[in-house]
Amino acid sequence: MSTTTTTLTPAPAGSTGPAPSKAAVAGEGRIGLRANLRHVGALARRNLLQIKKDPESMFDVLLMPVIFTLLFVYVFGGSVGSSLGGDRHDYVNYLIPGLMAMMGMNIAMAVGTGVNDDFRKGVMDRFRTMPIARSSVLIAKIVVELGRMMVATLILLVMGFALGMTLETSMLGLLAAVALSAVFGAAIMWIFILLGLSMKTAQAVQGMGMLVLMPLQFGSSIFAPTQTMPGWLQAFTDYNPLSNLADAVRGLMMGGPVASSVWWTLAWAAGITLVTAPLAVSKFRKKT
Fold it and tell me: Which end of the chain has fewer CB atoms within 10 angstroms, the N or the C?
């Protein structure tokens, strides 16, 4: 008795590729956890190889922490440090934890533009013809971007310590702050993946991302205390998840109450993920 083996051959990179087969989509539910992890690992390796072939894609991760730190410390450090009752050194201790909260937001935008670009090149159509979990393609993107985020965070911390930042709590508090930033960053990436799947061009994703990022970042406690802001803006910052994250990271690194800010940050992260992740996976399946 002979057995016939069918080999699935991906379409050429420049083509749009065939629509996902019903068998592949129907079979996704039978893919086990171990197979899912293998798929995520293989796709993450593919994304890492892309970075290796295009090292310029790491420029934002390598330069953004340096530029933001130097810009805000030496342009605003004196005045904001005075409002904190100290000097530029006190502002470094205030700013670096806030920038840790911001890193995930800025790097998350690259996930959306990357997904959009992959669809335009036909890469995602090839993945959708393969018998793999649809979610694994998107999760692999997030895994690699979290790695990029950790590189940016490490550079940011090196810059902070070089400028005189002091860790007031412990190494455990620092690691908890990094982990909390990563959890929230992963949740925000689902929003940008959904944008990347919904909008027609990478430029549109980037433009929409900036419209979302700017009010959230500057209308928060990342760069300056909110006590000096107008009342209506303080009301916005109270509900801004970036303020909760910045305050939580600052408390974990510099001391102070953290329980409320940490729980609010985790609640925001869970809520964002539970809403946007299923929508993103569904959009990925149906996108033409």
Answer: N
